[in-house]
Amino acid sequence: MLIRRSILFLTVCLLALAAYGFAAEPPAALAKQPSVGEGSCTGERACEGLTGRVGDNSCIGDFACFNNKADIGDNSCRGHQACQENTGQIGDNACSRNNEGYSCVGNSGEIGNDSCNGWRACQDNTGELGDDSCHASSIGGTTCLANSGEIEDHSCHGYEGCLLNGGRVNNGSCTGDFACGLNSGRIGRLSCYGARACQGSSDSVGDNACVARGPTRYDTSDACFGNKGQIRSDSCIGIKACYANAGNIGTNSCNAELACAYNPGLVGSKSCNAVEACQRSDGNIGHKECNEVQACMKPD
Question: Is 271:252 a contact under the CB 8 Å cutoff?
Fold first, then answer.
């Protein structure tokens, strides 16, 4: 009888320990549930497969944040498939605008506040993006689509601005439709303003360079379109000022319409500051030279 009572007592103790263990350690599936803010994850299959934290009023739309793996701030990822398969951290008020779709789909880079707003903005982006960057224009979206370069604050605004960009873009640059699409060089501060301003550029551009009016495709500036040479600060200001340039250009040079378009050679500082001054020039130009209209222009 004593043995039976001992066995019964031991059984009760083991059951009690097991019950305590379940209460103290909830199932792993429940412990790993991410935090979802108020008003978030609305839409068919929105947030399905979610593992990252979501702020308030985010992930709104069918498949929004589907399989998202990173943290998302407030009022972000709004629109059809917005932030689907995202793996990069996203700030507040990002990856949405008027609930347009596909923004930040497949993104893996860190995205700051108020960035990547517009249709397909930052889709497949892998670069780090600052605040207030990569905004689509009223004409269309795809800003910073498949970008792989680092983009600082207040940059890459416009239709296909910084699309397939691979270079570093500094603060306040690349504003205008196609402004720095396909760029692979370093862009300085407050540079490449205007439609197609630095599209296809493959070398570095300094500060306040490659600037011209014409923010939309209907009024192109082409200041440094297709550039292949190093451009110093405060240079190439004007419509097609350094269009298809292939030479290195010094500081404060080529500041006029077509001033150094198709230039193949070296241009010193403070030179070629007149309309068509050094267009298609065939030799190197020194310091403070060729500052009159068509002064060193080679005939077509």
Answer: no
Task: For residues 98 and 78, give the distance between their C-alpha atoms in angstroms, rounded to a whole number.
Answer: 8
162 found inside a domain: no
The span from the CA of 183 to the CA of 225, in Å, is 10
| Domain contains 268 | yes
Residue 260 in any domain: the answer is: yes
Domain count of the fold of the chain: 1
Q: Can you tell me the distance from the alpha carbon of 283 to that of 144, in angstroms, rounded to the nearest whole number? A: 37
In tens, the pLDDT along 121-169 reads 999 999 999 999 999 886 678 999 999 999 999 999 999 999 999 999 9
The Cα angle at residue 186 between residues 133 and 227, in degrees rounded to 5: 110
pTM of the model: 0.87
- Distance, CA of 130 to CA of 26 (rounded, Å): 39
Report helix, strand and coil shares of the chain as percent, to nearest 5: 10, 10, 80
